[in-house]
Amino acid sequence: MNPIPVIGRFAPSPTGDLxxxxxxxxxxxxxxxxxxxxxxLLRIEDIDPPREVAGSAGRIIADLxxxxxxxxxxxxxxxxxxxxxxxxxxxxLRKGLAYPCGCSRKDLPASGVYPGTCRNGIPPGRKARSxxxxxxxxxxxxxxxxxxxVSGQLANPGGDFVIRRADGLYAYxxxxxxxxxxxxxxxxxRGADLLDSTGRQILLQRALGLxxxxxxxxxxxxxxxxxxxxxxxxxxxxxxxxxxxxxxQALQFLGQQPPAGMSLSGLWEWAIEHWNSILIxxxxxxxxxxxxx
Length: 293
Description:
The chain is built from seven helices and 13 strands. It has helices at about 20-35, 55-65, 80-95, 170-180, 200-210, 245-255, 265-275; strands at about 5-10, 40-45, 75, 100, 130-135, 140-145, 150-155, 160-165, 185-190, 215-220, 220, 285, 290. Helix 1 crosses helix 6 and helix 4 packs across helix 5.
């Protein structure tokens, strides 16, 4: 019996230029796949136009290329996959695993937890706005290869979450599950800021009869004041950095210690051969340079 091929991916949203935090995720996902002899894919998650920055997708792809991060295959744009998301929602609705919701943000309690108002039908005087996934009571546990065992209580009906928004846009939780399966992804390596979303994605995978990939959530790069380095804050864009320096910094952030004086190609050869995920700091946030948060 042939083993399942290893397929990893990097899936940025085009909300700004590549920054150090997203480079860390790109490097980690690339090396986790390539060190196992697997493939590494690139997906642009462009399904939230109000948040997108014109031209950023092209600049992200160009920066990755400049840094030596080349995907095994064409780039997948989520904007080309809208029909697949709609078909998935229709399937969940038919099975009673999702339902229309007439609530808006102002209808939520101060806790922000959805109280299940429309779980058994939209109340009189309201009309359907969004689509929610119906969450059963209980725990959703999974083993994360950096963060360890993760378990979250999913209250019924408080855990019901939106899979198509009131503005008609498809939610991240749904799209990422559909596309990871479409691309054959076997391992998800990304920032720990998405750790709390993983339980919801696993529930969707189970409801759709899809396999669950392995998960590795890397420390999120933060500034001295504890704030995430992000594209939207325009912090530390990688485009201003020399490639060897940028890749070396990302490797060191992930606990790897490459020798000095290497070319870019030599650095990648060393990194693939010596990649050791055990050395990644087992924390959710980390300052570049080693300051644990």
